[in-house]
Amino acid sequence: MILLDTSLLILAYGRRGRNEAEPPPVTMLRRLIVSGASLGIPAIVLQEVLAGVRSQTHFEQLRSHLAAFRIVTATPEHHVEAARITAACTAKKSLAPRPRP
Question: What is the DSSP string of 56-100?
Fold first, then answer.
């Protein structure tokens, strides 16, 4: 499954002028959707995207569009594992030789 991030969804579903070209990441997302790729949205990303909407009408339209994607929720165990990975990466980074100026 490919998880979609806030910045991509804002690009894809945000307001653009009629004459503005579609950004390349949005074109890629469109291709993934058409191809039937497994796409999901982390629940926190759903919240972030919807929180930025200014009108109730746009909120409901966007909510309806995003409902087509699988919403992925994290468990406490996911957060613990993410913290473990971050700590391991940080430890390795601190052990790595630093380039000399």
Answer: HHHHHHHHHHHTTSEEEPPPHHHHHHHHHHHHHHHHHHHHSPPPP
Q: Give the chain's mean pLDDT.
A: 89
Say how far apart CA 57 and CA 33 lie, in whole Å: 24
pLDDT in tens, 70-79: 999 999 998 8
The pair of three-digit structure tokens given for residue 95, joined into one six-digit string: 């052990």
For the 2-73 domain, the top CATH level (class) is alpha beta
Global confidence as pTM: 0.72
* Residue 70 β-bridge partners: 40
In this structure, what DSSP letter does residue 55 have?
A: S
pLDDT digits over 53-73, tens only?
999 999 999 999 999 999 999
DSSP code of residue 2: E
Q: Where are the domains of the chain?
A: 2-73
